[in-house]
């Protein structure tokens, strides 16, 4: 049985080795940490695949070098921007290659190869098509599924694109079905595995659909449990509202009491015709208990006001995140959150919420959580207010007692 001889790997040129080292250092120092797919590992894989495709296509040494250099720099632009990073990659490649004294005409070839990796650019030359095939080689490799999950995570972190499991499985299947490798070398290297990946993605989609259907059936079969959950939510909301009203009443009581106390003290101490005013002037030692009483009333009323002060939880970045219904931290039902959105985004979020029971419950749970945070703050400040008032009155009474003994 005859076997096809393996072609020897061409030796790397010195400029290619230097490019690898430069890009590795560049990514390590400047690549945003949210990028978990477009990392140096991805670039290293693309460079290896490009070299292998170029060798299979029988490229001459200068073209092989240009293709590999383009592969090393094709994602370098991610250090500055996400969309349109290809054009920034071209600039970085030109700057570095010029510094290395690389021929200008060959720099132009490298830049045009990188340009072709943008989704809207034409792929006319063999070198351009080879790099595009290498860049999309993950679709024709066994680690396709794992890479797809990394890309999903990266899009959520950098672009705000959030997909459900079914939506992502459908998106991946459509992408795999539509993709076509452009070169014969690419087809020979990846086509068989691409077909296998399409089969695996179909299985994954069916599995997700079965899970969703089973979830719906379970939800329909537990109507009584659903009513119990809704009763729990109603009682919890009612309890939080009662506790909030009680806190506000206690705060208003302390505000009223201490305000009256401060008004009386200031009025009598400042009035020349009152009995307390002259007595206070003749006995300056009374400043100690009176000062304690004023400080007590002031500290108590300030903390009571802070407790009664409205506290609205909001997120400044909501305007840039239309998929808020799926965000675990955000409650779209709360005015402090949805008033940061445009009307269109709010309507989209509400429609999405009404379609998914889990999302609805998640928003209600988030609402209860933040209500609890507000209540905790209210009662903590109320406790401080009452403690200041109690301790202050005790100290004032002791101070008056000491003053009376001193006078006697």
TrEMBL record:
It comes from the Bacteria. GO terms for biological process: defense response to virus. Residues 237-403 form the Pycsar effector protein domain. It is found in: Cell membrane. The keyword tRNA-binding does not apply. Residues 39-135 form the HD domain. One of its GO terms (molecular function) is nucleotide binding. GO terms for cellular component: plasma membrane. InterPro entries: HD_domain (IPR006674), HD_phosphohydro (IPR009218), PycTM_dom (IPR043760). The chain crosses the membrane at residues 251-271, 286-308, 386-406. Its main location: membrane. The keyword Cell membrane applies. Residues 201-223 are annotated as: Disordered. This is HD domain-containing protein. It comes from Hymenobacter gummosus.
């Amino acid at each position: 049985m005859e076997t096809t001889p393996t072609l020897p790997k061409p030796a790397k040129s010195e400029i290619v080795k230097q490019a690898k080292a430069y890009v590795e250092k560049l990514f390590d120092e400047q690549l945003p940490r949210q990028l978990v797919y477009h990392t140096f590992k991805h670039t290293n894989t693309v460079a290896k695949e490009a070299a292998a495709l170029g060798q299979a296509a029988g490229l001459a040494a200068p073209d092989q070098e240009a293709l590999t250099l383009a592969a090393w720099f094709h994602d370098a632009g991610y250090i500055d921007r996400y969309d349109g990073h290809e054009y920034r990659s071209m600039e970085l490649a030109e700057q570095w290659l010029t510094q290395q004294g690389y021929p200008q005409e060959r720099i132009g070839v490298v830049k045009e190869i990188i340009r072709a990796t943008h989704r809207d650019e034409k792929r006319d030359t063999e070198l351009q098509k080879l790099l595009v095939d290498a860049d999309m080689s993950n679709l024709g490799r066994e680690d396709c599924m794992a890479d797809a999950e990394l890309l999903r995570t990266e899009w959520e972190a950098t672009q705000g694109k959030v997909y459900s499991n079914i939506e992502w499985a459908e998106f991946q299947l459509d992408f795999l079905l539509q993709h076509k490798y452009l070169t014969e070398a690419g087809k020979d290297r990846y086509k068989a595995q691409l077909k296998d990946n399409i089969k695996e993605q179909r299985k994954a989609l069916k599995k997700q659909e079965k899970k969703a259907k089973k979830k719906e059936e379970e939800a329909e079969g537990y109507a009584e449990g659903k009513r119990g959950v809704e009763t729990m939510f109603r009682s919890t909301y009612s309890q939080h509202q009662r506790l909030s009203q009680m806190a506000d009443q206690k705060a208003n009581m302390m505000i009223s009491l201490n305000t009256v106390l401060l008004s009386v003290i200031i009025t009598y101490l400042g009035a020349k015709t009152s009995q307390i005013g002259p007595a206070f002037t003749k006995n300056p030692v009374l400043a100690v208990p009176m000062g304690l009483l004023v400080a007590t009333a002031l500290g108590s009323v300030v903390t009571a006001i802070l407790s009664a002060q409205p506290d609205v939880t909001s997120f400044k970045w909501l305007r840039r995140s239309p998929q808020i219904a799926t965000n675990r931290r955000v409650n779209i039902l709360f005015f402090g959150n949805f008033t940061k959105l445009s009307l269109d985004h709010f309507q989209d979020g509400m429609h999405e919420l009404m379609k998914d029971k889990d999302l609805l419950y998640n928003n209600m749970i988030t609402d209860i959580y933040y209500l609890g945070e507000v209540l905790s703050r209210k009662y903590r400040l109320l406790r401080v207010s009452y403690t200041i008032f109690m301790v202050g009155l005790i100290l004032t009474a002791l101070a008056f007692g000491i003053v009376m003994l001193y006078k006697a």
